[in-house]
Amino acid sequence: MSPRFTLDPFIDRYAQRTQSMLSSEIRDLLAVTARPDIISLAGGLPFTQALDPETIMRSVRRVLAEDHAAALQYGPTDGFAPLKHCIIEVMREEGTPCYPEDLIITNGAQQGLEMISKIFINPGDHIITEAPTYVGALNSFLSYQPRVHTIPMDENGMILDGLREVLSGLSAEGAMAKFIYTIPNFQNPAGITLSSERRFGLLELANDYDCLIVEDNPYGMLRFGGTAAPTLRSLDESRVIYLGTMSKIFSAGMRIGWVAAPHAILDKVVLAKQSADLATSTFTQMVAHSYFTSEDWRGQVGQLVEIYRSRRDAMLSALEEHLSGIAEWTHPEGGLFVWVILPDFIKASEMLAAALDAKVAYVPGDGFYPHRGGENCMRLNFSYSDIETIHEGIKRLAKVVKREISLAGSLGFKVPRPGEAPPHDEQ
Ligand SMILES: Cc1ncc(COP(=O)(O)O)c(C=O)c1O
């Protein structure tokens, strides 16, 4: 909207960077889809109902009984030291060695993304992301005004030829990318996992072009089958900035995440965090510490994996039953999301009104691209709804899609393959 026609009386005063801040379409959408009559496959919520409140109450009681004054006090910017040992245990579980001095605790992984953007991105800098990618990361990056290069994915993750092309193109111009951002496990939104071979290839390219990698791994422990590939950080500590979180294995509401990175980078992250919020809540860090040291957190993750696996299966079988031959979709081995690719003449964002009318919601794919792409795609969440609801939701959705197809009056439509984003459109 042109500033002249805005109703905002302060429009002339905002910093330029606010112009590239995106309002989260997903958040706006979630407000609509929270209506109880709508089956929402749109959110990205973990199923916190699975956590027994008694275990949390025990943890809170222990914290208050043992040292309520410390729990209610400010804490160090880099985090509550005993909790770092729990995080180290979580990282070991995924085969990533880590030491307390390699870590800082943040207000969710989202704050890690914000801090990394803050310390690395000058306006006009180049960064590289997968396409599609996590919209919260894009929002943090874009508010610092970089040029974003996107790399399409196939079923094995980021296509390395595309990445090589971007890196060598930049190098030919005498430029370099500040970092490559990847979500290697059960990616949000596509549900795709970066294959082991590609992980090695990615590190090799990053090494050839002296580029940092930001490895965002909220979903790695939510694996339903198959074999885990090594984390990038476990393969190269010197150029990987790793982001972890308790949001998907414990509680998103506690807002606890972490950054593991080379020490020089951590020093800068600490400075950035100091000015952002001084420290992560001591209270929630102490509760989390009590939970991880005294409760069966592994059993809890195992239970979540069982629930999510059955819901993923329900979603895949409902898609097969109702949209087979009409759409394609990814088959995630973990995480929370399935990515659906519709015939290319369907615009998922335009179809949403009809879907809401049919009492089902999804997230249109184009919001996960910084430029263009994903218009005929949608992200579906399977973690939050029960099996019956998922079946009913997909049934409703399929009806809407079929109506859209018949409206378009097209019979010989083409079903595109995953990862049809433009190869590396630059902002
Ligand atoms: C890929 C990715 N990174 C980071 C986050 C933010 O997680 P947190 O709750 O730890 O801030 C999310 C949340 O959904 C995510 O999907």
Architecture overview:
There is one protein chain. The chain has 427 residues and is α/β, with parallel strands linked by helices. It has two domains: 10-50 and 299-408, Aspartate Aminotransferase, domain 1; 74-294, Aspartate Aminotransferase, domain 2, CATH 3.40.640. It has 13 helices and 14 strands. Strand 7, helix 8 (232-235) and strand 8 form a beta-alpha-beta unit. The longest helix is centred in the last third of the chain and has 27 residues, at 297-323. The radius of gyration is 22 Å and the shape is globular. Mean pLDDT is 92; it is low at 415-427. It binds pyridoxal-5'-phosphate. The site of pyridoxal-5'-phosphate has 14 residues, from helix 4.
